[in-house]
Design goal:
With 105 residues, the chain is an alpha+beta fold. It is built from three helices and three strands. The two termini are 22 Å apart.
Amino acid sequence: MIMNDDNIIRKIEEISNNALPSLNTYLYDGWLLRTSYGFTKRANSVSPLYPSYLDLKEKINFCESFYMKKGLPLIFKLFDCAYPNNIDTELQKRDYMKYDDALVI
C-alpha cells in the first residue's frame, strides 16, 4: 500500500489517540469527539480525521452543544488533512482562536 501525506498524518493521529486514550470516544460523521473530564486538550478534543457528509455548520453546532453539555471547552485538533479542508475558515468566522502547534518530525 502506497501512503500519501494525508494517510501518514491520519495514521500518526490514530497512533497518538491510542497512545493517550480518552475515557470516552464518539465517532460523529468522520470526526472523533473525545472526552476525559478536561484532563488534557488532546483527550478532550474533536479530531476531524475522516471524510464526512453532514453540513459543516451543523457539525460544529452539534460539537458546541455536545461539549457544553459535558461542561468542557470545545477544542478542535486540526491538521493538514482535516475534513473538510475549510474547517479552519469556518472556525475563524465563529471567533475560535488557534493557540497551540505541534510539530511531528
